[in-house]
């Protein structure tokens, strides 16, 4: 007899990453929320307003990639000034390290574009779909005229704001008045069109839908922030010693008689969190340090008549040793902070000094490879060079070219070179010298380019060839 085939149990698929559930942050008011909105207003007034500022006859800040010139108010920079961009990036990185060492993720919680635009998009969402409970009911309910109308209005405002953000971003690279005229004429160039829609789509997707997923899974800062934290870093902290054991109770009840701590387990700190974490479980990498949980917890403490500060900005050492605010402040000036501050100060001072002493024109000397060294009339030896003179000022300048390094050298033609404002000009010059006393080979000479009106001079090295 053959044995019946045994049935194998069905295989259970266990996902490596659980599907994220939608977070519905509750609106909150308080000190840290007010500060967050102050930074929202400041950053957006700067971002949307700066491209419309005028400086003389041009846009105040313009990164003209086509002309390879960057205008920053009265400063005109060329690609050769890339060192200043490097310096700005280094200053930004060190500033981030410094602020993180002192007070955690201040950048993430208050000024990061992802946080700022998420806050704006959620404000629009609250005013079109209602508060947290209303939004949850709306999403769970059937599609009807009310739901379609509210969702459509929200999406329309999101799209318009995203496109305006993309338009403003491109306005830093194409003069925004010209860009506006092109949009009104439906004559936008292909690259401008691409970047307006690309940046607009990124804003719409990140702030409207991905939100906390960007902070939790895409931003690398969340992963290495712990390397910049120490036990004296200010972070959003739940006072476990005071709050536990948590539990619901009557407002008039004495928690000490019930064996309870100050936490009433209302879960409002979880409901207001934009990343959906429970701060009572300790510091987590998802926490962006926005302080929303501290604001709502203070509100609850006021209602039940308990002291504020169950959730607050504090340090690990302060909570452990029950330090006062003055003791916390004194621990700010610790070695790590002082080192970051010292390095940052040196770099900033060096950049400011370099910009102050910067010569407002540049010169490149190139040997004309189409014309070899030769003997001309009068028995003189001639080399031909091409000089690129870049005028980094916003007024026309005259330049005088001389040469030194060998006896009897002179430059032809001898007239001054005129370069228009913020323009570059190539000039062909002949350098001649008496053949007598010159040894064959390559000799180092120096061009001196002087701008009398600027009282500045640049010296550039070149090679003068003497034929055999």
Structure write-up:
The protein has 468 residues and is α+β, with helices and mostly antiparallel strands. Helices cover 43% and strands 20% of the residues. The protein has 17 helices and 16 strands. Strands 8, 9, 10, 12 and 14 form a five-stranded antiparallel beta sheet that branches. Strands 13-11-15-16 form a four-stranded antiparallel beta sheet, with no helix packed on it. Strands 3-4-5 form a three-stranded antiparallel beta sheet, with no helix packed on it. The protein is elongated.
Structural class: alpha+beta
Model regions low in confidence, pLDDT < 50 over at least 5 residues: none
Terminal CA distance: 109 Å
> Helical amount among residues, as a percent range?
40-55%
Draw up the topology in text:
Blueprint: H1 31-49, E1 54-55, E2 58-59, E3 61-64, E4 69-72, E5 75-77, H2 82-103, H3 106-111, H4 113-129, H5 132-140, H6 145-170, H7 176-184, H8 190-210, H9 212-218, H10 221-224, E6 235-238, H11 240-243, H12 255-258, H13 268-271, H14 292-304, E7 311-314, H15 316-321, H16 325-330, H17 335-356, E8 361-367, E9 374-376, E10 380-391, E11 397-404, E12 410-412, E13 417-419, E14 424-434, E15 441-451, E16 456-466
Antiparallel strand pairs: 1-2, 3-4, 4-5, 6-7, 8-10, 9-10, 10-14, 11-13, 11-15, 12-14, 15-16
Helix pairs in contact: 1-4, 2-17, 4-6, 4-8, 6-8
